[in-house]
Design brief:
The chain has three domains: 7-259, HUPs (Rossmann fold, 3-Layer(aba) Sandwich), CATH 3.40.50; 263-392, no CATH class; 397-452, no CATH class. Helices cover 45% and strands 15% of the residues. The chain has 16 helices and 15 strands. The strands form five sheets. Strands 4-3-9-10 form a four-stranded parallel sheet, with helices on both faces. The protein has a four-stranded antiparallel sheet with strand order 5-6-7-8. Helix 9 (288-295) crosses helix 10, helix 11 runs antiparallel to helix 12 (349-364) and helix 12 (349-364) runs antiparallel to helix 13 (368-381). It starts with a strand and ends with a strand. The structure holds one RNA strand.
RNA sequence: GGCCCGGUGGCAGAGUGGUUAUGCAGCGGUUUGCAAAACCGUGUACAUCGGUUCAAUUCCGGUCCGGGCCUCCA
């Protein structure tokens, strides 16, 4: 099988993927901070790296995929206070919604989903090591990483220390030795979550969480670390600094993958801009599989504008593929080679989808093998795995006229009688009624099938 | 100011130093009681200005435009 190529942010080049252990590939992706529903921007890495893991599983005996949950963070404290509920309650509720959302997006659960609050001891141990090795210092209840102690700090984001000082827009806290130093541990007031530590009662900084959890489950050096483009700096840069300095390694992960942004009307979708659409709401409107297809319709590193039009295109594309795939059974060995070749080229999902459409055309022309290849291949993208009938009829919402499936079937039966009697005016009247209710009929040699129109 | 990424047909979106994906929409046709679906045909698009080359949308450089990071952020 040919080689997998991945764009590595460390080198800004597409490279051959060579795992540390060919029989056990280890992947870490940054997960959510659980203070509210995730939005479509958050959904992108979940879906994209889910495809990566599915692809890796085809090629390697074992894949360990870790995606963390950050459940200690000031945003959580603030949100809980705003809502007048406990932090634990907020986290539990948010995690439950998160799991529902990822399931609707068709994403497989990661092998391990560690929570930051369950790894405080590991974080403290790593901080202690960093202090002992002279890379960190305690000051005023805080512990800070001293960036100048790491020679090649900035290598992932391609920033020099001078640049960072010149570009600094934040006020420098008085306890920092140097402006770029970042927090490993900070003190907690009585009403904030905190843990006892050698530096007083406090809580961890954001970056150390991922370093400690990655080390716990994947070791000091692992294969792939993934996340959104905006995490390159400072989050991933700081993870590298912490992990490499604590472990005396030159690398934390061999390959760093970063997905591009989701935009709305060409503007970055972000919590701070307030132009977000939650996965829950979007899935209610368009269905999870449509979202997934839309999220895979552009290359993962390119920006993706999720307009209403993009959603309709995704849904229409799935309509076509589902009609072609019908209800074939397919096993893994039917996966199309050209399709896989697209994914092996740095997860080129748009090209892979194009190949799916070519297979659909072959299947529509009677090529049974193509239909099987279509279904088996689509599974690698996590698409087309429900029955065609269920896809066609799955109107979450009732139709405008409130027709349920039984009522529709009844009308179709009446129309069938009318057609048998060549009463075409009556037959058309029934179809018009159904069309008005958003039901589209298709007559075939096997009888009449129907589907719900969306939008 | 520093660093990074883009500009492809009506829309979305791949890709390639010369044979020009794919989907949606459109048009023509086959088919159908009528439709729908499907199939066939149809669109010479690659921001701009130079350079390299027998040949550039594809490589190099400049310009213009857009986006992102530098602060929590997928």
């Amino acid at each position: 099988m040919s080689v997998l190529k991945l764009h590595n942010t460390l080198t800004r080049k597409k490279e051959d993927f060579v795992p540390i252990d060919n029989d056990h590939v280890r992947v870490y992706a940054c997960g959510p901070t659980v203070y509210g529903r995730i939005h479509l921007g958050n959904a992108r890495p979940i879906v994209v790296f889910d495809v990566l893991v599915r692809l890796l599983r085809l090629r390697h005996a074992k894949v360990t995929y870790v995606r963390n949950i950050t459940d200690v963070d000031d945003k959580i404290n603030i949100r809980a206070a705003e809502r007048g509920i406990g932090i634990d309650e907020l986290c539990a509720e948010t995690i439950e919604t998160f799991h529902q959302d990822t399931e609707r997006l068709g994403a497989l659960a990661p092998d391990i989903e560690p929570r930051a609050t369950h790894h405080i001891a590991e974080m403290q141990a790593m901080i202690t090591t960093l202090i002992d090795k002279g890379h960190a210092y305690a000051a005023d209840g805080h512990v800070l990483f001293q960036v100048s102690t790491m020679a090649d700090y900035g290598s992932l984001s391609k920033r020099s220390m001078d640049d960072m000082i010149a570009g600094a827009r934040v006020e420098v806290a008085p306890y920092k030795r140097e402006p770029a130093d970042f927090t490993l541990w900070k003190p907690s007031s009585d009403d904030q979550p905190g843990w006892d530590s050698p530096w007083g009662r406090g809580r961890p900084g954001w970056h150390i969480e991922c370093s400690a959890m990655a080390k716990s489950y994947l070791g000091e050096v692992f294969d792939i670390h993934a996340g959104g483009l905006d995490l390159i700096f400072p989050h991933h840069e700081n993870e590298i600094a912490q992990s490499c300095c604590a472990h005396d390694q030159t690398k934390m992960a061999h390959y760093w993958l970063h997905n591009g942004f989701v935009t709305m009307n060409d503007e970055k979708m972000s919590k701070s801009l307030g132009n977000i659409i939650s996965v829950t709401d979007a899935a209610d409107q368009y269905r999870g599989e449509t979202l997934r297809a839309a999220l895979l319709s552009a290359h993962y590193r390119a920006p993706l504008d999720l307009s209403d039009n993009a959603m309709c295109d995704a849904r229409n594309g799935l309509d076509r593929l589902y009609r072609a795939v019908a209800d074939v059974d397919a096993s893994q060995d039917k996966i199309d080679a050209d399709f896989i070749a697209c994914l092996l080229d740095d997860l080129n999902t748009p090209a892979a989808m194009a190949r799916l459409h070519e297979l659909a055309r072959l299947a529509n022309k009677g090529d049974a093998a193509a239909a099987k290849a279509l279904k088996a291949s689509a599974a690698v993208l996590g698409l087309l795995q429900q029955s065609a009938d269920s896809w066609a009829k799955a109107g979450d919402a009732a139709t405008d006229d409130g027709l349920d499936d039984a009522a529709i079937d009844g009308l179709i039966e009446a129309r069938k009688q009318a057609r048998a009697n060549r009463e075409f005016a009556k037959a058309d009247e029934i179809r018009d009624q159904l069309t008005g209710a958003g039901i589209i009929l298709e007559d075939s040699v096997d009888g009449t099938i129907w589907r719900r129109r969306w939008q």
